[in-house]
């Protein structure tokens, strides 16, 4: 299965407009943003857990990265409220659940398979640094290695600047709105731009809070056998 599988093209999805699709696990539904593969896939997805739903314990052979958009995600490692950023590296395992229900942005099979770094960050408690080169932009780093840079950025209303996309980039609008290439992207819109794209964005009248990942698209592969 391929969904937005041409990584040489700019792609926008308004995730709130995508119909929910049932997953193999009762009470868990998905909105696909991109996908290479079937049930085992390199995928970017918005996932919703109904209250009281859960998955069986499983291993993330290719790693799992997610951001909690609403509610509380739970597993044996803790309770993670909205605003939590988690990286479960390749070969890690857990038993996901949500007693109150939650919605998360999930990325699967997008790690260096040798990565063993766990990350668990509550961005509600995370500081931010004003970007000296981009007035009106404050950055909260989440993760960085030789393959990618993941961060949360807060843009003041009307701020307009380039975003580094030499290695490609993805933006998920957590709050507010932005405009890119003449297109307005509201809350929960997702933008993916290819390697070398000239990415410039302008924050809307209420500013914007953005989840951004850049530099990672040279490493796109589908899971073996997918």
UniProtKB/TrEMBL annotation:
Residues 10-111 form the ChrR-like cupin domain. Gene3D superfamilies: Jelly Rolls. Transmembrane segments: none annotated. Pfam families: Cupin_7. InterPro entries: ChrR-like_cupin_dom, RmlC-like_jellyroll, RmlC_Cupin_sf. This is Anti-ECFsigma factor, ChrR. It comes from Pseudovibrio denitrificans.
